[in-house]
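Exercise 7. Given the encoded structure of a 174-residue chain, write a plausible sequence.
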């Protein structure tokens, strides 16, 4: 089991979010909240990653969010920076960002990530042993997410059945 800690900051408005452009710490995962026609106000709309570019640069590429006529109303942002006792290599850091995003997507299923969730396909081998701990101001995310719960890895274990139904059942519990 690999444990990744994510330190969250937010909610931030567009102006504060646009200042998250300072390397070396402005990389990680982010959340976008706004109005949704079905789910209501201040709803988790999107989870993304800033892996090869800073949060501000990545978020600026989502231009449709900045169109006031798009129906999302006021948007707020949460930035999640990976944390630990040492900084891994750039390659490992990037891999962890991608894996954390994948776990958060399958666990929370934001409405504007429908295609990304579909495209996750069989990431079981990549994220199956990941455990994400969310710290700080993490919005409506779960504080702790285990990829084992959200992948296909545990959905059909061999001989899975209720205790007491196995062929060599030891009887009733003491």
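Solution.
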């Amino acid at each position: 089991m690999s444990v990744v800690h994510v330190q969250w900051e937010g909610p931030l408005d567009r102006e504060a979010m646009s200042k998250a452009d300072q390397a070396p710490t402005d990389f990680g995962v982010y959340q976008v909240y706004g109005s949704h026609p079905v789910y209501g106000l201040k709803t988790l709309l999107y989870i993304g990653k800033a892996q090869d570019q800073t949060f501000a640069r990545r978020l600026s590429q989502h231009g449709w969010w900045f169109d006031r006529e798009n129906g999302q109303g006021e948007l707020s942002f949460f930035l999640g920076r990976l944390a630990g006792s040492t900084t891994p290599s750039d390659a490992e850091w990037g891999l962890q960002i991608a894996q954390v995003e994948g776990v958060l997507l399958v666990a929370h299923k934001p409405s504007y990530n429908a295609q990304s969730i579909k495209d996750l396909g069989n990431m079981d081998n990549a994220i199956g042993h990941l455990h994400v701990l969310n710290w700080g101001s993490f919005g409506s995310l779960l504080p702790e997410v285990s990829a084992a719960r959200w992948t296909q890895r545990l959905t059909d274990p061999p001989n899975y059945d209720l205790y007491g139904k196995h062929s060599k059942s030891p009887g009733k519990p003491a």
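Remark. The chain has a mean pLDDT of 83. Students should compare their own answers with the one above.
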